[in-house]
Amino acid sequence: MAINLNKGQRIDLTKTHKGLDQIIVGVGWDTNKYSGGEDFDLDVSAFVLDESNNAKRDEDVVFYNNLTGANGAVVHTGDNITGEGEGDDEQIKITLSKFPPDVAKVAFTITIHDAEARNQTFGQVSNAFVRIVDERTNEELVHFDLGEDFSVETSVVVGELYRHSGEWRFAAIGSGFSGGLADLCKEYGLQA
């Protein structure tokens, strides 16, 4: 049974689930009634970070245009441009044992594609969640509902997978951000 987290909570993953190596980070959402005439396309990204909270190279941003990073430890399964249907709208697969030793953290974000041009914000998004699944057993380990706290934000840092004392943990972040993927890249030390 999954542990439901609230914003700011953290949980051990590998310490409490011995042998855990391959996980799926699934993210889903719905859009509220929207009549702007444009598609509503949300995108999940993973930023592979060092101890200084920085990505070292462009390949450390795994998203719809760069599906693999960190020596194959992070794999994006593809872009869902509509968010239609039940369950996860996008997924990122993680193999913990493949991470190079200099990787301290992976930050998972959701951005709204062309948000400014389309006049779209997270105030128009509902039922957003992130969950972690043990890929081997298909057991949901962690579930975090982002809530409806956003209004003008166009990006959200949903959570972080990080190393602590040799074990992997997950932190529920749920922090809104104004700006798109390029702005998040700058935030994590890359020039877009």
Could you provide a short overview of the structure?
With 192 residues, the protein is mainly beta.
**Main beta sheet:** 7 strands, mixed
- Which architecture would the CATH scheme give at its second level? Sandwich
Q: Give the SSE order as H and E letters.
A: EEEEEEEEEHEEEEH
Classify the helix fraction into a percent range.
Answer: under 10%
What top-tier CATH class fits best? Answer: Mainly Beta
Number of helices: 2
Structural class: mainly beta
Question: How many angstroms does the end-to-end distance come to?
Answer: 40 Å
Which shape, going by the Cα principal axes?
globular
Q: Name the beta content range.
A: 35-45%
Name the average pLDDT. 89
Poorly predicted runs are none
Count of distinct strands: 13
| CATH fold title | Lipoxygenase-1
The side-by-side strand order for the widest beta sheet comes to: 1-11-10-3-8-7-6
The fourth-level CATH homologous superfamily is sav2460 like domains
What's the number of domains?
1
What radius of gyration results from the CA coordinates? Answer: 16 Å
Describe the structure.
- This protein is mostly beta strands and 192 residues long.
- The chain has one domain: Lipoxygenase-1 (Sandwich), CATH 2.60.60.
- Helix content is 6%, strand content 43%.
- It has two helices and 13 strands.
- The protein has helices spanning 115-118, 181-187; strands spanning 3-5, 10-12, 22-31, 42-49, 61-62, 68-69, 74-76, 90-95, 105-112, 125-134, 139-145, 155-164, 167-177.
- A seven-stranded mixed sheet has the order 1-11-10-3-8-7-6, with no helix packed on it. A six-stranded antiparallel sheet has the order 2-13-12-9-4-5.
- A hairpin with a 4-residue loop joins strand 10 and strand 11.
- It is globular and about 50 Å long.
- The protein starts with a strand and ends in a 5-residue tail after the last helix.
